Amino acid sequence: MRGNVLRSLASRAATDAGFLKQVRRDLEGTLARFDYDLTLEELRLVEDLRHRTARMSDEQLARTLASGLRERTGSPPTRPSAPRWRGSGPARPAPPGGPR
After folding, report:
1. Which residues neighbour 39 within 8 Å (Cβ) at sequence distance 6 or greater?
2. Per-residue pLDDT for 22 more than 90?
3. Domain that holds residue 56
4. Would you say residue 19 lies in a domain?
5. Least buried of 1, 33, 50, 99, by fewest C-beta within 10 Å?
6. Distances from the Cα of 68 to the Cαs of 35, 61, 78, in angstroms?
7. Is 88 among the domain residues?
8. Residue 91 resides in a domain
9. C-alpha distances in angstroms, 13 versus 27, 40, 96, 97?
10. How far is CA 30 from the centre of its chain?
């Protein structure tokens, strides 16, 4: 699960009232329109949160999300990404005769 994607989604929902309204009305359509490409596990997590908070007002939900984001400062670091071919070696070869 990608915490940065979920934090971005929560942050946007906490600060953009129009986005939050759209998410609550049409989750999958809104995610697609705003280029959130969630994994199945992430989508299930968001759906579960949506169902558990359905009785909250938009303002209550925005405050709850904002509060949760502030409390996540002690979260574990994200897993490092796998090395890529491009950029994995030296930036450029050393000049002939060694470094100057």
Report:
1. 1, 2
2. yes
3. 3-70
4. yes
5. 99
6. 23, 10, 18
7. no
8. no
9. 12, 20, 55, 57
10. 15
DSSP sequence for 19-58: HHHHHHH-HHHHHHHTT----HHHHHHHHHHHHHTTTS-H
Residue 48 CA from chain centroid, whole number: 16
DSSP class of residue 77? P
DSSP 64: H
Distance CA 83, CA 100 (A): 29
42 or 73, higher pLDDT: 42
Does pLDDT of 98 surpass 80?
no
**What share of the chain has pLDDT > 90, as a percent?**
52
CA-to-CA distance for 91 and 81, rounded, in angstroms?
19
- The tokens describing 50, both together, are 């949506």
CA 19/CA 29 separation, integer angstroms = 11
Task: Give 62's DSSP letter.
Answer: H
Which pLDDT tens digit goes with each residue over 27-49?
Answer: 999 999 999 999 999 999 999 99
